[in-house]
Specification:
This protein is an alpha/beta fold. It is built from eight helices and twelve strands. The strands form three sheets. Strands 1, 4, 5, 6, 7, 8, 11 and 12 form an eight-stranded parallel beta sheet that branches. A two-stranded antiparallel ribbon has the order 2-3. A two-stranded antiparallel sheet has the order 9-10.
Length: 251
Amino acid sequence: MTSIDLNADLGEGFGRWQLTDDEELLSVVTSANVACGFHAGDPATMRRVCELAAARGVVIGAQVSYRDLAGFGRRSMDVPPGELAAEVAYQIGALEVFARAAGTRVAYVKPHGALYNRIVHDAEQAAAVVDGVALAGTLPVLGLPGSRILELAGRAGLPTVAEAFADRAYTDEGTLVPRGEAGAVVADADAVVARSVGLARDGAVTARSGARVAVRARSLCVHGDTPGAVELARRVRERLAASGVRVEAFA
């Protein structure tokens, strides 16, 4: 039976402000990408999400980012490699404290936003992220298939996990359409559900141009900040199961 992991970005709040419905999403997903304080998240939020995830048996991943609270981590930054590596390790370590206190651990790393997109092609920034992850151990790295980050992580001996996005538009090259462009986010819920099944079963998606693009992934992301995210995630999981796809964590 085909299997796939279902992940979502969680803990994306700060202080009294909360963006994601963490408790409800944790009843649906198998892996939680938890914000580590640089694009969103604070110590109390990180602790709460780790406790909720541990109670539900959801695997915890560190969602590392540029230091960009004001821009939600969606602004590309020219951070010196040594500094970026240290900041990646710092974020992982911060989340690990709360994961261990909840009786579990950080099981993987997923870069967020502008950093995620930058290290698809930027070898220097990708190498810095790999160095930061390696400082924290040998955690698997989630990334776009064919990206420099997965290439360099593999060379460094880190496990790699290819990821696909049910609700993001793709280019003909298999990369994500930048969020600033029209149609970058797929808003139609039925289309998102259908794309999820296609990605899981066929390893392919229809690009913005209409071309079919191969995207072979072990994990599927549904964004937690999408309007109606919880219901959409439930529909995706139910349709995957109905289509003969087993939904389970990769870690």
